[in-house]
Design goal:
Number of domains: 2
Distance between the termini: 10 Å
Largest sheet: 8 strands, mixed
CATH topology of the largest domain: D-Maltodextrin-Binding Protein, domain 2
Helix content: 25-40%
Strand order of the largest sheet: 5-2-6-1-7-10-8-9
Oligomer: single chain
CATH superfamily of the largest domain: Periplasmic binding protein-like II
CATH architecture of the largest domain: 3-Layer(aba) Sandwich
Shape: elongated
Order of helices and strands: EHEEEHEHEHEEHEHEH
Length: 203
C-alpha cells in the first residue's frame, strides 16, 4: 500500500523514564540485572534484530543504565510492553526503568507516582494516509476512520484536534503498535495516527 505522511499540529514529547529510586537501585544491584521496559517493537528505538538482539535508542538507554549501575552494559533484561501495560509494569516493580516512547504529560507526572527523568527525543503526532485518499492536510480527514493504539495520548490528541476543528472521525482501536499497523495495511481504517517517528519507521 502506498502511503503518504501528513503532519498535524499536535505535539508530544517522548521520554525515557528512569525510576531508579533508592529501593529500586538496591534491588537492581542485588539482582545483578536491570529489568528494562521497552516497546513491543519500533525500528530505531527498541526492536529485536533477526538474531533476537535488541537494538535502538531506547535500548541504548537501558544499556547505559546497566553500565553505570552494574558496570556491564549487557546486564539488561528487555521486557516488551504495550502502551496499556507500561505504567502498571513500572508501578508494580515488574520493570526497574521504562525506556520507550511515552509522552510526558503533567497528569502522568503528578498522578502516577513515577519519576520522569528527562526527555531523550522530541516528537509530534502525525497522520499516515493511503495516497488513494488524495489528501494533503489533516483538515481534509473529516469523517475518516483512524487506526489508533489504545492507552496512548494519541487517542486524546486526535479527539481534541477533531473537536477543535469541528470534524468527526471513527476510531479503530488496537492493543499494540504492530496490530495497529496491520489494521491499516488491511484497510480497516483510512488513516493511521501515531508519533511521527513511529509512522516513518512503519512506512
Amino acid at each position: 500500500m502506498k502511503t503518504s505522511l501528513i503532519t498535524a499540529a499536535i505535539l508530544s514529547v517522548s521520554f525515557a523514564g528512569h525510576a531508579l529510586a533508592e529501593g529500586t537501585l538496591d534491588a537492581v544491584k542485588a539482582r545483578g540485572v536491570v529489568q528494562c521496559g521497552v516497546t513491543t517493537g519500533l525500528a530505531g528505538f527498541s526492536n529485536p534484530d533477526e538474531k533476537g538482539n535488541w537494538e535502538g535508542l531506547d535500548v541504548d538507554v537501558c544499556r547505559a543504565v546497566a553500565a553505570a549501575v552494574l558496570g556491564d552494559a549487557k546486564k539488561v533484561k528487555y521486557i516488551p510492553l504495550t502502551a496499556k501495560e507500561r505504567f502498571t509494569a513500572l508501578q508494580s516493580g515488574e520493570i526497574d526503568i521504562l525506556s520507550r516512547n511515552t509522552t510526558w504529560t503533567q497528569t502522568r507526572d503528578t498522578q502516577l507516582g513515577l519519576n520522569f527523568a528527562g526527555v531523550n527525543y522530541y516528537d509530534g503526532q502525525g497522520f499516515m494516509a493511503s495516497k488513494k485518499l488524495g489528501v494533503s492536510s489533516a483538515k481534509e480527514l473529516d469523517g475518516a476512520a483512524f487506526c489508533i493504539q489504545a492507552g496512548t495520548t494519541t487517542e486524546l490528541n486526535l479527539a481534541s484536534y477533531f473537536r477543535q476543528h469541528g470534524m468527526s472521525f471513527s476510531p479503530v482501536v488496537f492493543d499494540t503498535s504492530d496490530q495497529t499497523a496491520k489494521g491499516f495495511d488491511a484497510g480497516r481504517c483510512d488513516v493511521l495516527t501515531s508519533d511521527q517517528s513511529q509512522l516513518y519507521a512503519l512506512r
